[in-house]
């Protein structure tokens, strides 16, 4: 059974039942990565994922996903190829694989290459073989049988449906910047914070003109416990996770409350 829905910008999302996620938990790296088990006819799911990621930027919200910086490196640069060092930064246990491959004798190494359908003449240097292993593991090997890297191609297509590629280049957004914008900052729920350092705070003229009330307001807010600050954050934004610094505005208004007859006369609605 398949449901078809237009989700915006001419993008057609076909979500099948039962639903299979385009992301999967990469246990060794303790993060999410592209799901390698999905066939090519599921490419619409990757395009939808890209569209949703781009929509978080436009709508100034976050998706609480454990996506590593390397994911956004691949998203921003279609020509990027991960190195062995990149793989180790994502998955420290890959260092053992490197050590094992380097430690194999020649016959063992050539036997492994033969089993994987690789030419010993082409991969005389073990670093080259390891680089192929890295690209294949991260689904970024365009030379792979059947065509590799198509998952990220479709994620990019969906992402740039929302945000033009030229805009990303013009703003010089880095992978770390984009990860922080899309997934929020690396944030622990028990960590203290200052609203005025995280948000771009905008106050109305009435509150700005009343320094005593303004100071009392911030003294009260900053005197809250970490738990109560998080609850206030949840009340204001809908989530208790902090956004990337200076990416969201917080508007504070002091509504006019008429108390007596004279105040009612000042109220422009009367």
From TrEMBL:
Keyword DNA-binding: no
GO MF entry, a single one: ubiquitin protein ligase activity
GO CC annotations, alphabetized: cytoplasm
Superkingdom assignment: Eukaryota
Keywords assigned: Transferase, Ubl conjugation pathway
UniProt catalytic activity: S-ubiquitinyl-[E2 ubiquitin-conjugating enzyme]-L-cysteine + [acceptor protein]-L-lysine = [E2 ubiquitin-conjugating enzyme]-L-cysteine + N(6)-ubiquitinyl-[acceptor protein]-L-lysine
Presence of keyword Transferase: yes
Pathway: Protein modification; protein ubiquitination
Domain HECT per the UniProt entry, residue ranges: 18-244
EC number: 2.3.2.26
Protein's UniProt name: HECT-type E3 ubiquitin transferase
Organism: Octactis speculum
């Amino acid at each position: 059974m398949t449901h078809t829905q237009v989700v915006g910008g001419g993008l057609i999302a076909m979500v099948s039942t039962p639903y299979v996620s385009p992301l999967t938990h990469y246990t060794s790296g303790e993060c999410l990565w592209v799901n390698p088990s999905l066939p090519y006819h599921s490419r619409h799911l990757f395009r939808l994922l890209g569209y949703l990621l781009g929509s978080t930027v436009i709508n100034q919200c976050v998706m609480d996903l454990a996506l590593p910086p390397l994911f956004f490196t691949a998203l921003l640069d279609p020509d990027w190829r991960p190195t062995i060092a990149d793989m180790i930064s994502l998955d420290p246990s890959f260092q053992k694989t490197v050590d094992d491959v380097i430690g194999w004798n020649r016959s063992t190494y050539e036997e492994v290459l033969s089993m994987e359908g690789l030419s010993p003449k082409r991969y005389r240097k073990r670093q080259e073989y390891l680089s192929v292993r890295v690209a294949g593991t991260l689904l970024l090997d365009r030379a792979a049988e059947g065509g590799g890297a198509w998952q990220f191609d479709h994620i990019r297509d969906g992402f740039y449906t929302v945000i033009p590629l030229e805009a990303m280049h013009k703003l010089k957004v880095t992978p770390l910047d984009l990860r922080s914008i899309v997934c929020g900052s690396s944030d622990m729920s028990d960590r203290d914070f200052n609203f005025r350092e995280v948000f771009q705070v905008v106050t109305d003229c009435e509150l700005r003109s009343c320094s005593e009330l303004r100071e009392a307001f911030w003294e009260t807010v900053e005197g809250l416990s970490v738990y109560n600050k998080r609850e206030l954050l949840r009340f204001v934004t809908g989530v208790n996770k902090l956004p990337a610094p200076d990416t969201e505005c917080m508007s504070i208004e002091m509504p006019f409350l008429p108390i007596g007859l004279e105040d009612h006369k000042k109220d422009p609605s009367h």
